[in-house]
Amino acid sequence: MYSIYEKKAHGTRNIASQISYWTDVALLIKQPKFDVEIPHGVDEISIDSPQLGEFREMLTDFIQFDKVKFYKRFKIPFITFHSTLYDNKFKCVSHIISYKHDQDDKIRFGDCIIFIQCNNDYYAFINNYRDEAPNNSLSSLLKISDTATCQIIEPLDRLYSVKSKSDSFEILSMSKVRHKCISVPVGDFFCLTEIRNDFEHD
Fold first, then answer.
1. Which tens digits make up the pLDDT trace of 101-143?
2. In a shared domain, residues 102 and 151
3. Is 177 within 8 Å of 99 (Cβ atoms)?
4. Statement to judge: residues 95 and 176 lie in one domain
5. Are residues 96 and 1 in the same domain?
6. How many whole angstroms separate alpha carbon 109 and alpha carbon 130?
7. Strands 177-180 and 79-82
């Protein structure tokens, strides 16, 4: 106890009085209780919503509707994921996520179209990005020369992936999701990075 309040005290005179004062202050200040949210969906949406029109047939093939709920947003502690159907996304692009499958360590990217709750588990219905040819790496697109003096190519191509939109869709467990990501158009492609966009807004 002494060591805690000794740091707050100034000098050694009247140290007992100062410790007593800081003890009183600590007891008077109410410490708010902080509850960490459990993962949950936000902004429920009906399968009959016009917003789901173009995806309704695909979703019908994937799932049984009497057992699920749909949401436009999904929250885990301190992070909110958005779907492409979310209404209040302002100018940000906050629906792109990175993820991995169990079979390999490859980082993949997708657009979250809608979030799905089945019992207590959550999933995202996503539109995948597809890999481009190796010569469409970011360093190639930017025409960076591969010389002994230029050490930027390896980290650049590792941190930034060049992808394009695909016609491939899947339902992904939210437990597989790594991060919210950033996308920048580069010519006919998209430059995607896991450099964190997690805390942007909710």
1. 888 888 899 999 999 998 888 999 999 998 766 666 778 777 7
2. yes
3. yes
4. yes
5. no
6. 8
7. unpaired
**Is the same domain home to 158 and 181?**
yes
Q: Give domain status of residue 198, yes or no.
A: no
Q: Which own/partner contact pairs does 87-93 have at CB distance under 8 Å and 24+ positions apart?
A: 87/43, 90/201, 92/200, 92/201, 93/182, 93/183
Taking all residues of the chain, what is their mean pLDDT, rounded to a whole number? 78
d(CA 194, CA 99): 10
Query: Which residue shows structure tokens 């109410």?
Result: 30
Domain presence at residue 199: no
The rounded distance, in Å, linking the Cα atoms of 167 and 63 is 19
Q: Which of 1-5, 26-30, 59-63, 189-193 has the lowest mean pLDDT?
A: 1-5
Token pair listed for 109? 């990217």
* Percent of the chain scoring above 90 in pLDDT: 11
Domain of residue 19: give its range.
1-32
Using alpha carbons, list the distances in angstroms from residue 111 to 11, 157, 192: 59, 21, 11
Question: Could you tell me the pTM of the whole model?
Answer: 0.70
Confidence label for 202 from pLDDT (cuts 50, 70 and 90): very low
Q: Which of 86, 19, 71, 77 is nearest to 41 (CA)?
A: 71
